[in-house]
Specification:
about 300 residues; two-stranded antiparallel sheet; elongated
């Protein structure tokens, strides 16, 4: 099969197949769909969705390209199948490419035109946004990720844009300020502050975030909405507050400020207030007290 571009040691779709006219490429996809590369079962029969599966990373990428030739965007996810054998349970990773809301349904009709309704909330794996224009904007100290005038200061995708959420059950070593400060303070170790600590952050308690998620889900609003606390606090102030509330004997030590560390992070929650009637209710000291209480209980648990 080497003369056809198939490499027996690698599972790939040869370039000449990916470059076929759509009227011919559709037959390849139909063959793959009908073969053991796809497992749709009843979902396929009822036209709910197409599922193209493979255990090979490169073949997954080739399938994305093949579907892209028709203007289709699959949802891509990495999953694991399980097999219980005499030697014990084994897990086998595989990739699944999912197409939902495609019309016409049959791949054999796609060369004449096909439409797809993208829905990130329904497919789960896909995060997307329609780009209608790109233009250079002047950077400000409040811009983080993407700045979209008229929408939000912070924007990257669709749905809720969470900002520095904190609360019980945070991972102790996730690298953010509050978990790091708590871990150091509860063990009476020095709290590490980068730079002079004047850089600000806006911290939002997890209960407030959940209220925002529920409000958005029930609102019918489809555009990005910031859910965060617009009240700023410097990292030095946060370190001092953590020491006070934990009654720690820790001191504060200062280290060099990373080059790319932002000076200000403050969300604009105008849309959340106007569209969802949402704003944070739990202030930072109260949120920290609840977070500290949980962390102390966790430390008391037997290892």
């Amino acid at each position: 099969m080497d003369h056809l571009g198939f490499d027996e040691n690698r599972k790939r779709i040869p370039g000449w197949i990916l470059g076929l006219p759509l009227r011919r490429l559709k037959w390849f996809l139909e063959g793959y769909r009908e073969g053991d590369g796809v497992h749709s079962g009843a979902k396929l029969a009822t036209g709910v969705r197409h599922e193209f599966s493979t255990v090979y990373d490169e073949l997954k990428d080739d399938l994305v390209v093949a579907l892209g030739r028709f203007g289709l965007v699959p949802s891509v996810g990495l999953y694991h199948s399980r097999l219980r054998a005499r030697t014990g349970e084994r897990r086998y990773p595989f990739w699944r490419l999912t197409l939902s809301n495609v019309s016409p349904w049959s791949p054999l009709e796609w060369d004449r035109g096909v439409e797809q309704e993208l829905n990130a909330r329904r497919t789960g794996d896909l995060v997307w946004a329609v780009v209608t224009g790109i233009e250079e904007v002047e950077a400000t100290s409040l811009v983080y990720d993407f700045s979209v005038p008229g929408l939000e200061n912070f924007w990257a995708g669709t749905g809720v844009m969470a900002k520095n959420t904190f609360g019980p059950r945070m991972r102790p070593n996730d690298g953010r300020a509050i978990p790091a400060f708590l871990q150091q303070a509860l063990s009476d170790k020095p709290l590490t502050v980068f730079g002079d600590g004047s850089q600000t952050r806006s911290f939002c308690f997890v209960d407030d975030l959940i209220r925002g998620l529920v409000a958005l889900a029930e609102s019918g609003v489809n555009d990005p909405v910031n859910v965060g606390n617009p009240e700023e606090m410097s990292l030095l102030e946060m370190a001092k507050l953590v020491i006070e509330l934990t009654e720690s004997r820790s001191e504060i030590v200062f280290e060099a400020l990373p080059v790319d560390d932002p000076k200000i992070r403050q969300p604009d929650i105008t849309r959340a207030r106007n569209l969802l009637g949402w704003e944070p209710e739990i202030d930072i000291p109260e949120g920290l007290r609840r977070t500290i209480a949980f962390a102390v209980d966790e430390l008391k648990r037997p290892a």
